[in-house]
Amino acid sequence: MIPSFGNPALLFTALTHKSYANEHSTKETPVQNNERLEFLGDAIVNFIAAEWLYQQFPTLGEGRLTSLRAALIRAATLAQFAHNIGLPSMLNLGKGEEDSGGRQRANILCDAFEAVLAAIYLDQGMAAAQAFFVPLLEALAHTLLTENLDRDAKTLLQEWSQSVLNVTPRYQLFGTEGPDHAKRFKVEVWLGELMAATGQGPSKQIAEQMAAREALKMQNAVVSRLHSK
Length: 229
Prior knowledge:
Blueprint: H1 8-14, H2 18-24, H3 35-56, H4 62-73, H5 75-84, H6 95-99, H7 106-124, H8 126-146, H9 153-165, E1 170-177, E2 184-191, E3 194-201, H10 204-217, H11 219-227
Helix pairs in contact: 1-7, 3-4, 3-7, 3-8, 5-7, 7-8, 9-10
């Protein structure tokens, strides 16, 4: 939940996309967009995540801490955090951005989340920013660790398939759906002559990652299916 603000104008600015500011600004009453707050929020997100991981996982080395932080603060994750706190319905968008699906666009949601975090910091200080952000990190970090979700799924699948099956994964796009502003890509991953799994995502790269992750979940089944051929 977003806390109450001593200066509500800060929150309004954090939720204001440049498209709204451009449509509503006049010489007499300019409207500020959230880009400056997003710039500050990006640094605060990095600091809070790094400090929390450092304190929470004292036995992890720099490499794993770095990969965990990258997974926790990448754009898709921050956009999901934005969804979790109800940010899409709160955004101030211009008409064109609204009509083209801007409330669901990951980069807009990610930027708005960072801007809101910066606004909390400026309004109430770092402790309040941490109290807002850390519970979101805690909810995700355990899953990332136990399922290796912070590691690149395509790399993990390639390492496993080459060592166990002596084959290199191949990815094949087999379809797309949805309008241009919200297109979803569908990808198959093949291990030799076996179609091991499928994945979907808002880009071909993300769909490939999802397909690889699904294939990793079915390693034993993949081996059995290949041996039965």
